[in-house]
Design brief:
Helices cover about 35% and strands about 20% of the residues. It has about 325 residues and is of the alpha+beta class.
Length: about 325
């Protein structure tokens, strides 16, 4: 895949990193990698931490576009995107609506359900609904094991795999520390997959699928980012027809949410029959040394530096204006 970008035309670039979310640490790693890559290609790129500087300084300091390397709340939930829309500064990734919906796993699943896309069964709980009787009904509906997570967090923050009914109350309490709503999902036994997408609309392109092989301890926050215990297989080892099916589902999921620029869908592949199930869409994926979009891009012949340039060159505003 050739990536031809006029670096001079990109202007002064802010790499937004850090922020105030629970994923600040990962965002700093992502942003640091992006910043170094862009500078190595001659881009006039600078670090900008919205937790330490008001966003209005983007305009006063003459930044012409932003690479969003923020993760989580106030980074990929549409809020920063909305601020940049008001400032008139083009930015990477999805716009306000797609970012807000994708950040909310409950709303995402409602959109996908309307499109007939495959997902695990789910139950949404609010704090007043967490009586022992209600929790017992969740187990009866979804079976065990099941997954409990806060629908507005990423990087497995606040997530628990519940093996026994007696563990559900504590899992819900943990998730409720991060969110006012708790999402309980049917557990799909099988392989974990992820598939990035680049582009927009009908021209969007799915990159190679990655199969994730976690250690016995699981694919948690620490193993995702700070160990080498997780194995990532790309090529995925899936047969060509199944890989193409997964990519087709991911593209439909991406387009249904109105995503643009880039994104990454996470899925489970059920062991019993090979059926894929969508879990979530990430609209500001990680760009660390352990991150999956750069890994998949490399398999498609795109270097980390080329990927950063390509994403930056596609920076836009919701109205379609590009930098």
């Amino acid at each position: 895949m050739n990536v031809n970008v006029n670096v001079k035309a990109l202007g002064k670039v802010a790499v937004l990193m850090g922020g105030s979310s629970a994923e600040r640490e990962i965002s700093l790693l992502s942003g640091g990698g992006v910043l170094q890559a862009l500078q190595s290609q001659g881009v006039d790129a600078h670090a900008f931490d919205p937790a330490q500087r008001p966003l209005a300084e983007l305009e006063t300091d003459g930044f012409e576009r932003c690479f969003i390397a923020l993760h989580g709340r106030h980074g990929e939930d549409g809020t920063v995107q909305g601020a940049l829309e008001l400032l008139g500064i083009p930015y990477t990734g999805s716009g306000v609506m797609a970012s807000a919906i994708a950040m909310d796993k409950v709303m995402t699943k409602r959109v996908w359900a309307a499109e007939g896309l495959p997902m695990p069964r789910q139950v949404v709980l609010r704090r007043p609904e967490c009586s022992p009787e209600r929790l017992a009904a969740v187990v009866a509906e979804l079976g065990l094991p099941l997954i409990v997570k806060p629908p507005h967090e990423g990087s497995s923050i606040g997530m628990t795999k519940v093996e026994q009914a007696s563990q559900l109350a504590a899992a819900v309490e943990l998730a409720a520390r991060h969110d006012s709503v708790v999402l309980c999902e049917e557990f799909i036994q099988g392989a974990e997959l992820t598939c990035p997408v680049l582009g927009e609309g009908e021209t969007a392109q799915a990159l190679p699928v990655i199969r994730i092989v976690p250690p016995p301890a699981g694919y948690d926050y620490n193993n995702k980012y700070f160990t080498d215990e997780v194995k990532y297989l790309v090529p995925s080892g899936l047969d060509a027809a199944l890989e193409a099916r997964v990519q087709d589902i991911v593209l439909k999921a991406y387009r249904a949410l109105g995503c643009r620029g880039w994104g990454r869908a996470d899925l489970m592949l059920r062991a019993s029959d090979g059926a894929p199930f969508l879990l979530e869409m990430n609209t500001s994926p990680g760009m660390t040394g352990h991150s999956l979009v750069p890994m998949s891009a490399r398999a498609a012949g795109i270097t980390y530096e080329q990927l950063c340039l390509r994403l930056l060159a596609a920076a836009a505003l919701d109205g379609g204006a590009r930098g």
